Structure formats: structure tokens, C-alpha cells
Amino acid sequence: QLRLVESGGGLVQPGGSLRLSCTSSEFTLAYYAIGWFRQAPGKEREAVSCLSYSGSMTTYTDSVKGRFTGSRDNAKNTVYLQMNSLKPEDTAVYYCARRRTNTCARSNYDNWGQGTQVTVSS
Question: Taking the CA atoms of the chain, what radius of gyration do you get in angstroms?
């Protein structure tokens, strides 16, 4: 199965920022919509946002609107999730996934990454 690889997670204080990266050595991300999801301990996985092939971002989690933004660097075959003004409730494992088409929606994703831990704590 084709793989995505996330990186950029870590421990950050409330109000801090992190930039997550999602890349693959096996397929071209530019042809697909790429979604970001997160799963906090004891909670179900939730859709956070999606970046279409054109770079248009859709945010699915109201609590991150205005704080998280997505972008692409097609030359690096990488999609980014810039997370600003982080809050303790943003603590979760974050995953990226490839959608089966180049437009965004909450479902119909394949090729998930292994996840990267984001911990927001003082």
C-alpha cells in the first residue's frame, strides 16, 4: 500500500505554533486532495481540514478555524498544516491521508500516514 509520512509534531506550550508536513516517496500528492485528521486519547478520530489539489483549504473542525492553515509545496511533494495559537485541546495524534479524488470531503480517504504526536502543554 502506498504510504504517506507525517512529521513536525512535538511538545509546544499553549499559544505556540507547529508546522506538520505530509509527504510520500511513492506518489505525487499534487494530484490529490490531502486531508488532516486527529485523534485524541479516548476520543474518535476527527477530520480537521483538507487541502484540494488546487490549494483550496476546507476546515472541518470549528475550533481550529482561524488558527490552522494548509499549503502545498509541489516541488517538494509535501503538504503542510500550519498550526498557530495552539491550545491544550489540540493535543492529539495527527494523521494525513490521501483522498481518492482531487476535491475535499470528510470521507473516502486511503493511504494514511503513521501519525505524528502533537502535545500542547505548559
Answer: 13
SS (H, E, C) the chain: CCCCEEECCEEECCCCCEEEEEECCCCCHHHCCEEEEEECCCCCCEEEEEECCCCCEEECCHHHCCCEEEEEEHHHCEEEEEECCCCHHHCEEEEEEEECCCCCCCCCEEEECCCEEEEECC
pLDDT digits (tens, 9 = 90+) for 46-105: 999 999 999 899 999 999 999 999 999 999 999 999 999 999 999 999 999 999 888 999
* Other beta carbons less than 10 A from residue 120's beta carbon: 20
Other C-beta atoms within 10 Å of 117: how many?
Answer: 12
How far, in Å, CA of 76 to CA of 99, rounded?
A: 19
